[in-house]
Amino acid sequence: MTTLLHIDASVRAAFNPNPSHNSISKNIAKRFIETLKQQQVIDEYIYRDVGMNPPAFINQDWIGAVFSPEEKRTTAQKEILALSDQLIAEVAAADLIVIASPMYNYGMPAQLKAWFDQIIRINKTFDFDLARGDFPLQPLLSGKRLVIITSSGEFGFDTDGIRANQSHLVPHLRTLSKYLGIEHIDEIASEYQEFADTRHQKSLDNAFNQAETLATELALFQQRNSALHVEYE
Ligand SMILES: Cc1cc2nc3c(=O)[nH]c(=O)nc-3n(C[C@H](O)[C@H](O)[C@H](O)COP(=O)(O)O)c2cc1C
């Protein structure tokens, strides 16, 4: 049983009248998910395009509602938290999460950050206890896998790359992922989009190949796991 939650964050559509405007991250994610679907490992598929349909930004009323005890929340406060409740339920249901994101201004799009702000919520996805000393926050979800798919115009954002110190997209996603219950992360990156040269084509081809390979590996892993479950039942 695999429930897949797929989050796209580009403000660009996957397909446009001018194909050079097509979102790269969305198309790599599409290849990954289509390959998984061909292997019939997805039982439930949940999709959100937060780039084109962004969640609301949190505000002071949202914080007020979150910190009100559940049984004392007013109808208005429950309404404020309805979207957050829904987005958290989608994360909680998922075994595998795919986040496909462009790099905007060296980090994630504001739309994707808005999604995280709705989800990382006290007593829902983490709890807080000063008895834990310097690390009072503890995630409440666990056991999930994350695939991060990114596209950038420049290049060299790896830890040993020439722009490692400007890399705030994947490091931020990795930091936040533990509040989604992530225990294993795979990464696929396409770079050089702004150079529009052979390095970009090579990087793109590589990312599409990686998407297919990873989906095939995940399907095999899942099939082996479910075979083991049947054997031991
Ligand atoms: C508003 C905006 C900001 C961007 N900022 C960066 C950046 O800081 N670094 C970078 O390498 N590329 C940057 N880019 C280029 C995008 O990361 C690149 O076009 C990528 O392919 C976009 O993802 P998409 O193809 O999925 O839409 C930016 C593009 C836009 C539109």
From TrEMBL:
It catalyses: N,N-dimethyl-1,4-phenylenediamine + anthranilate + 2 NAD(+) = 2-(4-dimethylaminophenyl)diazenylbenzoate + 2 NADH + 2 H(+); 2 a quinone + NADH + H(+) = 2 a 1,4-benzosemiquinone + NAD(+). Its EC number is 1.6.5.-, 1.7.1.17. One of its GO terms (molecular function) is oxidoreductase activity, acting on NAD(P)H as acceptor. The keyword Transcription regulation does not apply. Keywords: Flavoprotein, FMN, NAD, Oxidoreductase. Residues 17-212 form the Flavodoxin-like fold domain. Its cofactor is FMN. Gene3D superfamilies: 3.40.50.360. It comes from the Bacteria. It is an enzyme of class 1 (oxidoreductase). Pfam families: Flavodoxin_2. Binds 1 FMN per subunit. InterPro entries: Flavodoxin_fold, Flavoprotein-like_sf, FMN-dep_NADH:Q_OxRdtase_AzoR1, NADH:quinone_OxRdtase_FMN_depd. FMN binds at residues 10, 23-25. The keyword NAD applies. PANTHER family: FMN-DEPENDENT NADH-AZOREDUCTASE 1, FMN-DEPENDENT NADH:QUINONE OXIDOREDUCTASE. Homodimer. Belongs to the azoreductase type 1 family. Also exhibits azoreductase activity. Catalyzes the reductive cleavage of the azo bond in aromatic azo compounds to the corresponding amines. This is FMN dependent NADH:quinone oxidoreductase. The lineage of its organism: Bacteria, Pseudomonadati, Pseudomonadota, Gammaproteobacteria, Moraxellales.
